[in-house]
Amino acid sequence: MLSGDKGFTCRLLIFREHPSKKFVISILTALAHGNPSTLPSIRILTDRPEDYLGWPVETLALSPQLLSEWQGNNGYIHRRKACAIASGLKLAEKTLFVDTDTLFFADPDLLFKQIEPGQYLMDRLEYKWDYVCKRESYQTLGTHLRAHGITPSSSFNLYNSGLCGVTDNDAALLAQAIGLIDEWTEDGFDIHTIEQIAISFALHTKTVKESKKFVYHYFGEKRFFHTMHAHFFAQHGEAFSAQLVERSHDVPRTRPSPSTWRRLKIKWQLRGQRGALNKIGRDLLYGSAAPENPYFDLSRHHWWDSASREILRLNPELRQQLFGQLEHWPQHLPEPSKAQDKTLIMAHLRKRIMASG
Q: InterPro entries this protein is in (predicted)?
């Protein structure tokens, strides 16, 4: 969480209930891109403050009792995030909640300049309500929202709350969001993003800016980044130092994806395939066409894992027909750009599919 103490420079707080050292790369990227003269200090709301000994951070310990209180009575664990944001309002004039699966590629001070009274900062726009409300899992929530004047035709933006910038005058706004979470989860819930929908609703008449120009929130790609970050700390250790901050520049800020030209070529190669087969082919070829990089070399296999999951979702008869023989490259798919990857990919698929039983 980024925040600014009253009368002082802005500060960074990162909240996570069960932190792991491989996630502190987010702290390193904030430090690496920050200007020393305006760099926020770092506060972490955590139930394991011992994980941050020696790091240039302040920790605010969360007791099991407080975490239970923050979760509320309806079993919705993400209520804790809204409560964490609310608690940060007491510490600073400006507060920026940042999920730990967030990488900075710009000075954090630029984010604080986007936050003003009545002007808010969120990670990114994910959906428009008039689009997502048609999904079956959103029907119950839609009933609740109609009571608040939101209809299927309403212009209501749903933001990802992996990053949320507010000021110390916004206690009522967070209280409203927490109240909505309790209302919408009282009889159970069909979607896990109720917390960010509640915050989005509390902000829906406000000015909201997106932060995606300054950070990358890799929430849907954790398997790639966790592998790369684990490699970084295995190489350089977990003890904080100025050298560790500098070395963090070497860690990619993107997953191992082919260049634009190669992506277009792969799309052309797969032009005759549709649906699951197109996705399987794309994932197999993306893993092979990733740029040369030690971090990418270690994480590109996650593309092939994704392909194996798609293969396992196929109808058994179709799966046997298309992928029953994994000794050789499937004839119906274009071959990878690296010839040596054919054997490697087939061995990987055999291992994953056999492990599934």
A: Nucleotide-diphossugar_trans (IPR029044)
More confident residue, 77 or 21: 77
Please give the average per-residue pLDDT across 292-297, as a whole number: 96
Token output for 86: 């609310």
Q: In the Cβ-directed half-sphere of 201, how many Cα atoms lie within 13 Å?
A: 26
For residue 110, name the pLDDT band (cuts at 50, 70, 90).
very high
Q: What 3-state class would DSSP assign to 58?
A: strand
Which residue is associated with the tokens 């092939």?
304
pLDDT digits (tens, 9 = 90+) for 149-169: 999 988 899 999 999 999 989
Contact 153, 131 (CB under 8 A): no
Look at the chain and count its residues: 357
Q: What angle do CA 76, 82, 88 make, to 5 degrees?
A: 145
pTM assigned to the model: 0.89
What Å distances lie between residue 252 and 25, 187, 199, 337, CA to CA? Answer: 11, 43, 31, 22
Q: What share of the chain is helix, strand, coil (3-state, %, to 5)?
A: 45, 15, 35
Rounded-to-integer distance, Cα 305 and Cα 287, Å: 10
Which is it for strands 2-4 and 10-14: parallel, antiparallel or unpaired? antiparallel
**In 10 A of CB 143, how many CB atoms?**
10
Q: What whole-number percentage of the chain has pLDDT above 70?
A: 93
* 167-187 per-position pLDDT tens digit: 989 999 999 999 999 999 998
Strand partners, 208: 120
Domain ranges of the chain: 2-217, 256-355
**Among residues 1, 15, 24, 30, which one has the least CA distance to residue 216?**
30
* pLDDT reported for residue 12: 47
Amino acid at 260: T
For domain 2-217, the CATH architecture is: Alpha-Beta Complex (3.90)
Q: Which two tokens stand for residue 287?
A: 């893993």
